[in-house]
């Protein structure tokens, strides 16, 4: 099974938000970029769900994970990265 | 005893709202971006003073105007969450307005986007148990009256409408394989809170939706519901001619389609021009699918509703031509 790293998560979020490489930081959060509004956040969740083969819906912590840090923490706590 | 959907009619209010109206009230909103993500370019709004019962009456009268006999109706189920009054039951007011017999059993079902499938299950139970031969389900909501005009999560999505369905005895097994469920732990994520509630980001009296939580619930639960209906019906995805999901928004339906690896042509959508009309969205989509030539008499479709509660329901439907 392909290993998904923290970098792949950052790459996915960067792509969804149409950011330049390096623009997204681990401290970045919902509201920090024009594209990262409530609808943009759903786009991030959809893309991450695809990256993790439909497993995101079962991660309760993801419902309140509104920053890169929190998203990574939630994925790590569920042994997905 | 077998049960089937016989007829569907719906009513959309005269007031329409597009991107221009959103931008007028919210000059900082990027409308093209919002429309690209929600897929919704038009919503309907109940007129000033136009209530849930008013809309329900207009949709149901279309049934009776088209030849359905009022005396043949044994029950009236009104699915709504925006009832005219806390009490009395809106279905009672509707029974009187429609001129239905006083022998009609009439009651409300307080459910949102799963409500139509729940009402079909109740209707099927009433008919199969011999308590009734024929009845009407009306789904009617005016969520927009409880939406803050500056709420970017709710306003671009929700729309007002009413849809009326006749359900009756049949020679074919027209409604079957129900999967119904609830997870009330998510109730705060889609709510009109009271004064005493303390929900971050929510205002008393206004619709609040925690979009991420609702989206995650949908991604996790809807595929399970679909698979459960398939198992109960003994069918495979290939056996289903058309999937009709609650018309939540583009991002939600696209994700469900993707997670279930469904062929796009097997998933019907009409949210683009109608919006998310809560419990009315499935019957409206079912009728439109016939009108658009995507469904034909005898075809097999799967209906799946999901949302506020959290609550969900799915079933298999086979009907005559509903166009």
- Helicity range of the residues of chain B? 25-40%
Number of alpha- plus pi-helical segments of chain B: 9
Q: How many beta-strand elements of chain A?
A: 0
Shape of chain A: globular
* Structural class category of chain B: alpha/beta
Report the order of strands and helices of chain B: EEHHEHEHEHEEEEEHEHHHEE
| Helix content, binned percent of chain A | 40-55%
Describe the protein.
The complex is a heterodimer of chains A (81) and B (323). With 81 residues, chain A is mainly α. Chain A contains three helices and no strands. Chain A is globular, with a radius of gyration of 12 Å. With 323 residues, chain B is an alpha/beta fold. Chain B has a five-stranded mixed sheet, with helices on both faces. Chain B has a four-stranded mixed sheet with strand order 8-13-12-11, with helices on both faces. The two termini of chain B are 25 Å apart.
Throw out a few tags for this protein.
heterodimer, A: 81 residues, mainly alpha, 3 helices, B: 323 residues, alpha/beta, five-stranded mixed beta sheet, four-stranded mixed beta sheet, 13 strands
Give a topology summary.
The complex is a heterodimer of chains A (81) and B (323).
Chain A: H1 6-16, H2 38-51, H3 68-77
Helix pairs in contact in A: 1-2
Chain B: E1 2-11, E2 15-17, H1 19-25, H2 31-38, E3 43-45, H3 52-65, E4 75-79, H4 90-98, E5 105-109, H5 115-128, E6 134-141, E7 161-170, E8 175-182, E9 190-191, E10 208-209, H6 211-233, E11 242-245, H7 250-259, H8 271-274, H9 281-291, E12 300-307, E13 311-318
Parallel strand pairs in B: 4-5, 4-6, 11-12
Antiparallel strand pairs in B: 1-7, 2-3, 6-7, 8-13, 9-10, 12-13
Helix pairs in contact in B: 3-4, 6-7
In short:
The complex is a heterodimer of chains A (81) and B (323). In chain A, 43% of the residues lie in helices and 0% in strands.
